[in-house]
Amino acid sequence: MTRHPDLVFVHAISQILFELLSMGKKFLFFRDGTEEYDIWVQLDQSFRSNQSDLSSLFIYTPSGEPVRLSEIARVDSGPSYGSIKHVDTVRTITISADAFRMPGPVLVMKAKQILNKLDLPQGVTYQFTGEDENRKESQIFIGRALIIAVLLILVVMVAQFNSIALPLIVISSVLMSVMGVIIGLIVHDRPFGIIMTGVGTVALAGIVGNNAIVMLDYVIKLRKKGYQRNEAMILAAAVRFRPVVLTAVTTVLGLVPIAIGMDIDFSRESKILFGAASASFWKSMALAIMYGLGVTTLLTLFLLPALYSLVEGGKERLRGLFRRKEIVY
Hints:
Blueprint: H1 4-7, H2 10-21, E1 25-32, E2 35-41, H3 51-55, E3 58-60, E4 66-68, H4 69-72, E5 85-87, E6 90-92, H5 104-116, H6 131-161, H7 165-187, H8 196-224, H9 229-239, H10 241-259, E7 262-264, E8 272-274, H11 277-328
Antiparallel strand pairs: 1-2, 3-4, 5-6, 7-8
């Protein structure tokens, strides 16, 4: 027994105890198709409930010989030197945890509800970091990206139509596409994921804006040929009906495999899988585009001509009003 301490290093013992008693140790991984899941082992609570349990733990030497911890070390309990951490000169205590059986945002919301009920001493505050902080940063980034996308669409349309009113009509259809996104998430009982749902909403803005521009551009061409306002709108809706609907249908059909969680795996006998983790990650984006595009397709064919009629009718009434004033003068 006297040679055991020479065979086991102190830092090796501490590392083994840390892995067994705290977070555990990565042992193997399980592969399900293209997905890999880590398998972690941890000492059961019944074997680490008191000091005598720790003394009876077996530690393996580099040669593979099992040795009881009590044979190479003495287990004592007592105070230890702590560390005081500061962030921006403010004393800080970090508490970490992993979400279990619920999404991270839901867990943070419940934790905030509990903390808000506590009567914290003066000067004591709390802040959520980690995944919650990353989620907020992603939310800000996606929001800015959506605003920039809308502004770029607006600038291009102002240059194309030489008008402010017509681009606002297109932007209104882009904003109303969010209604379809919300409907899709409600129907499938999914949260508004900042990353994938936000990306889907930004992509949807480009598709919807393109359909609206095609429709209005054709209406303007018909007006230049001498068609009346109502005739131009009806003819434009009839002519552009097929391209707009086909664009929506082909896009939706292309996203159906992602929406139902289908994944193709060539490493297994079953080539087609459903419910894979990678497919679920993209599902929110697919649902956002599918439902948003479905709703805005109807808006493009029916509501967009109505908005155009209101805008052009308002312009004509304003022109008539100014002409009457000039005659009276």
